[in-house]
Structure formats: C-alpha cells, structure tokens
Specification:
Radius of gyration: 24 Å
CATH topology of the largest domain: Aminopeptidase
Shape: elongated
CATH architecture of the largest domain: 3-Layer(aba) Sandwich
CATH class of the largest domain: Alpha Beta
Distance between the termini: 39 Å
Helix content: 25-40%
Strand content: 15-25%
Structural class: alpha/beta
Number of strands: 20
Mean pLDDT: 95
Low-confidence stretches: none
C-alpha cells in the first residue's frame, strides 16, 4: 500500500480540491452539537444538524459539501476519554474517508498520547487487500493526514506509528493470500526477502534439515502435501541486547484437517491458519526496524495439512526432538504438533521469555467470542503480556491451565495424545496444556519451566464480520503491536 505521511501541528493547511476536513460533533444529553473547532466555523454553525440527520453518536460519520470544499463530521459521543476511544475514532475516520487524498482532522484532543492513539487507529484502518481484484476496485487513496492540535507528537513517535502500521499491513497481506499462492516454501521466501534489515539473519529449513534436526511435528503434518514444510528461523541480534525474547508461530498455510477431514464449512477460511507465523515474523522485523536493544529469535513453523496416501494417519505415533512421544489421534489438531517443534527449539536457547502465537482451537471462539485472544502460561509471562496488550489496546483474556484436564492427554501407547475426540471440555485449555509439555525447564535440576506464554487468537486473527473501530474485515494483524510492546517493555526494564 502507498505510505501515508502524518503531521501534527496547530496550523490548519490550506484548502485544496482533494482535501477533506474532518470536525467533531458530540452529544449533549440526546442532542447533537458541534464540538471544538467546528463550533466556530460559519459554514457549519448555520447547519441544521437535526434536519440533516447528523448524529453525534460515537463513530457516526457524515459528509457534507460546505462552500467550495468537503467536510467530514465524526461523532465523538460524550468525548474521547481514553486511548481506546481515540483509536476507535481514528479508525472510524480512516474507514469513512479513505477515498480522500488528504485529510485534515481538527477535533478536541486532550493530550499528546490521545493524539498519537487517534493517528494509530487511523493508520491501522487504512488497509485494503486488492491483489485479486480487477482494476478500478481500489478505494483507498489517502496519502497525507494532518492532525490540527497544540499537543505535540514527536518524529520518533510518528516513525514508530509508520513502522507498526506497515508491519500490520504486511501481516494482513500474508494472511489474506490464498493457499494456492502462499504455500510453505513461498511464505518462507517472502519473509526472507523482507528481512534485509541490519542485525537480522534468516535460516530456512527444508525437509532434509527438518529431519536432521528431528523436527518431527512439522514433518508429520506436512508429509501429506506435495508442497513440503519449512521452518524459518529469524534472528535479530543487536550488539546492545541484554535480554532475549523468543517467538513461536503456527504457520499452516492451508488446513484441510488432513485425513481427519474438516466438513466443507469448516475448511472455509483455513488460509488464515498461518496467521501466527506471519505475525511473529512481522513483529520481529518491526522490532529490528525500530532498533530496539533486545535479541529476538522467531520460529515460523510452516506446513500444509493435506490428506493423501503419504499423510499421517490417526493413531500414528511420532517422537519429538526432546524424546517425548505423541499418538496422533486427530490430524486436525495439527497446530500443536508443529508448535511443539518450535517450543523445543526456543527452549534450548534459554531466553528470558517465550511467547507462542497460534490460531490453535475453535474453543477460543466458544469461550471468548470474536475479539478476544486467549492467554495462558506462567504468571510472570502472563503479566507481561497483559501489560503490553493493555498499552497496545488489544484484547487478551487470561485463561487457566487446568491441571485436571491433563488426563484428556493421556495415551495408552505413547506419552500423550494430541487430542481427545468426543470430549470437548476446555478444548482451548487442553491445547495450552499440550504445548506446555514442550516448554523446557529453567535449569537441569529444577522443576520450574521457562518463562512462557501461549496466545490462542483463532478468532481475533481474522474478522469475518463487519468492520468496526480500527478493525478491518479479513485479516486483522492482531497481536503485532502487543508483541512489539512486550519487546519495548523488556528493553525499558534493562535500562533500570
């Protein structure tokens, strides 16, 4: 997408034919009233808002021809009172007026932080996936945004905004691409081509390398496809790093369920099953572009889950790199198998924090609906992610790792089964418990696991409903900003 330039100053730009000026209307009780600069403009003061059916309700938008120009009105309800509301207002403006070439926004802003959050929401909402559309179907033409405000926003903050929005767009492009064009080797090649950043190195492991490294989970899932699996290891290692973050992402480029074939409706949308891998890759590259003084090692665990004569069969037993054995009861519970390899590799590095991210279970939607990401793990890791998600404005919900559910993973012939068919109890939690078994111990003699958290964003990664706030339809780019914020907070700690 075309990069957008952002500017914050207290001087309004001159009107041009391709400029839309956006002002605020709000609610005083039930009555809609002009807010801020809008209440002082003669061309707006004379308008009968009620007759024009203009609403001051939060996120309501209107467009008017006033004089020789176009004016946009955004409803702010009773005001923009926090960062979340600011992002949502920014997103509503971005979605409603994305056909403009230039936007000027002059609405009441209480602080520099609110101003930045509004611009962030607008930037995130400026996304369209038009690769497969015929010419002329693109509507987003926005090139510049000028926020009129006396609140200052630094160049560093605007640069961060640009880098994060580009990381989100890159993630969404990958996730929205259909499986016929985005298969394991192709995903690996794309990420490698994007990784020409100082301090970043990329390794791509093919089938031979995966076998040599005993990454049996990825091989088992990928062996049913004519298009072989891959593991992509991305390392960002700046000289000033004092802490180490490891990221593991599920990268099933298409999931048919394997021999445990999904029903037709269940297969729809399964191009999104590589969202975890795409997200950790783009978050790592964003961290590198920001120059954060933290080492990051990311493992993209990539395969295509297909049924064929060479596919893994239900009741096959596989032995992982760490010696643990798993009886594959359900080949449609494949994500945890590829993630196990990544978690073992990450654990061997003994990082300060391991975060894994996966569209892992349908149970995430049952438990948490369409917008929340399930969060499980060690207390310290959970607290770090909750703090980062709150700062980023992303929704996570801490779920328990219920020990009594471990019985559902017992196998008669191996250490574990990967799924207990016929028993849906706590399916999201069972997925987390399975992954925990492949997280290493902090020390050879100890019993405590490494600092680890699991994020199940099976529904938050993709919005198949109407757009809202700064969330577009389709791939959302969820968790990119949270992961980057985790890294920022870890570097802030090492300075103390």
């Amino acid at each position: 997408m075309t990069p957008i330039s952002y500017k914050v100053s207290n001087v309004s730009p001159k009107a041009t034919s391709d400029l839309i000026s956006v002002y605020a209307v709000g609610l005083d009780g039930k009555e809609t009233q002009l807010q801020g600069a809008a209440s002082k403009l003669a061309g707006l003061k004379s308008l009968n808002l009620k007759a024009l059916a203009i609403s001051g309700a939060f996120e309501a938008t209107s467009r008017l021809n006033v004089g020789n120009g176009v004016v946009g009105l955004i409803g702010i309800g009773e005001g923009i009172t926090n960062h979340s509301k600011a992002r949502e207002i920014g997103g509503a403006i971005g979605r409603a007026f994305k056909d403009a070439k230039s936007l000027t926004i002059d609405i009441p802003i209480a602080s520099s932080e609110i101003a930045l959050a509004l611009l962030e929401g607008l930037a995130i909402a400026q996304y369209e996936f038009t690769k497969y559309k015929s010419s002329g179907s693109k509507t987003a033409t926005l090139k510049s945004v000028h926020l009129v405000s006396s609140k200052s926003v630094s160049k560093t903050e605007l640069d961060r905004l640009r880098i994060l929005s580009e990381a989100l767009n890159a993630t969404r492009d990958l996730v929205n691409t259909p499986g016929n064009d985005l298969y394991p080797a192709k995903l690996a090649e794309i990420v490698k081509s994007q990784s020409k950043i100082p301090g970043v190195t990329v390794e791509i492991w093919d089938e031979k390398k995966l076998a040599k490294e005993k990454c049996i989970g990825i091989l088992s899932v990928g062996q049913g496809s004519a298009r072989g699996p891959r593991l992509v290891k991305i390392t960002y290692s700046p000289s000033r790093a004092k802490s180490h973050l490891a990221l593991v992402g599920k990268g099933i480029t298409f999931d048919t369920g394997g021999i445990s074939l999904k029903p037709p409706l269940g297969i729809l949308g399964m191009k999104y099953d590589m969202a975890g891998a795409a997200t950790i890759a783009q978050a790592t590259l964003a961290i590198a572009r920001l120059g954060l003084p933290i080492k990051v090692t990311a493992f993209m665990c990539i395969a295509e889950n297909m049924p064929s004569g060479s596919a893994t069969r239900p009741t096959d037993v596989i032995t992982f790199r760490n010696g643990k054995t798993v009886e594959v009861i359900n080949t449609d519970a494949e994500g945890r198998l590829v993630m196990a390899d990544g978690l073992i590799l990450a654990s061997e590095l003994k990082p300060d924090l391991i975060i894994d991210l996966a569209t892992l279970t349908g149970g995430a939607r049952v438990a948490l609906g369409n917008r929340y990401t399930g969060l499980m793990g060690e207390d310290k890791a959970v607290a770090a992610i909750e703090k980062a998600a709150s700062a980023a404005g992303e929704l996570v919900w801490h779920m328990p790792l219920a020990e009594e559910l471990l019985d559902l993973l017992k196998s008669d012939v191996a250490d574990f089964v990967n799924s207990r068919l016929g028993n849906p109890a706590g399916s999201m939690l069972v997925g987390g418990l399975f992954l925990r078994e492949f997280v290493g111990l902090a020390s050879a003699k100890g019993k405590d696991r490494l600092n680890w958290a699991h994020l199940d964003f099976a529904t938050a990664a993709n919005n198949d409903l109407a757009p809202y706030g700064y969330t577009v339809k389709g791939a959302t780019g969820s968790m990119v900003r949270t992961l980057v914020t985790v890294a920022e907070q870890m570097t802030a700690k090492q300075k103390k």
